[in-house]
Design goal:
It is a single chain. The protein is α/β, with parallel strands linked by helices. The chain has a single domain, classed as HUPs (Rossmann fold, 3-Layer(aba) Sandwich), CATH 3.40.50. It has an eight-stranded mixed sheet, with helices on both faces. A hairpin with a 5-residue loop joins strand 7 and strand 8. Helix 2 runs antiparallel to helix 8.
Length: 213
């Protein structure tokens, strides 16, 4: 049995509506059995900034995903050494799964264009399919050129396959929300409303624990 598992990783400090929209859109692109949102215990690129505790970030995700039955929180990275690297997380999941997993990594174009800087990026590309979202415009051409240079051939307008690895990339143009976690934090520090940016239950949790004040 092969489980088609979509993965959306991130710091989620805090989770916002854009994260949920991205995960749900990915579910509409591929026939995935599950979509896991995986908060990083300690992201390698965020070590210079203090982040909210793992337990609080995971709790906010749990609240945010209520009413979204296709999405699940995984706290797996809290079990692994830090900093958190995607390739290590996927290896752990493979080793401890009772079934064969086909991973599909969900990300935005800006993040994917930086993937060669990730730990063991070649192995990661050989282990996962990718759903890469970009905003309409010139970003599509830039992303297409990058994917081609990685050794993928174009199968259709929105799909690519690697010559040797046989892994796929789905290049999806979508009006992605411009909201970011840093914007949410800045607004909270200034006492501004964030009700239109994050799920209401998350906003209440933040206020109850004074997380970003």
């Amino acid at each position: 049995m092969i489980i088609q598992t979509g993965i959306l990783g991130g710091t989620f400090d805090p989770v916002h509506n854009g994260h949920l929209a991205l995960a749900e859109a990915a579910g509409n692109v591929c026939h995935l059995d599950e979509i896991l949102l995986i908060p990083a215990a300690l992201p390698p690129h965020k070590q210079e900034r203090k982040i909210v505790s793992f337990s609080d970030r995971a709790a906010m995700l749990e609240i945010a995903l209520k009413g979204h039955p296709g999405l699940t929180v995984s706290t797996i990275e809290n079990l692994l050494p830090v900093p958190s690297f995607t390739i290590d997380t996927l290896r752990y999941m493979e080793l401890h799964s009772v079934a064969t997993i086909q991973f599909t990594f969900i990300t935005g174009a800006d993040t994917f264009l930086d993937i060669l800087s990730w730990k063991e990026s070649e192995r990661l590309l050989g282990k996962c399919d990718f759903i890469v979202f970009s905003r309409p415009g010139n970003a599509k051409k830039v992303l297409a050129a990058f994917i081609r240079n990685l050794g993928y051939k174009q199968l259709s307008e929105n799909s690519w396959e690697h010559f040797k690895k046989k892994k796929k990339i789905y290049q999806i143009q979508k009006h992605i929300s411009s909201v970011s976690s840093s914007e949410v934090r800045k607004r909270l520090l200034k006492g501004k409303s964030v009700t239109h940016l994050i799920p209401s239950g998350v906003s209440e949790y933040i206020q109850s624990k004074s997380l970003y004040s």
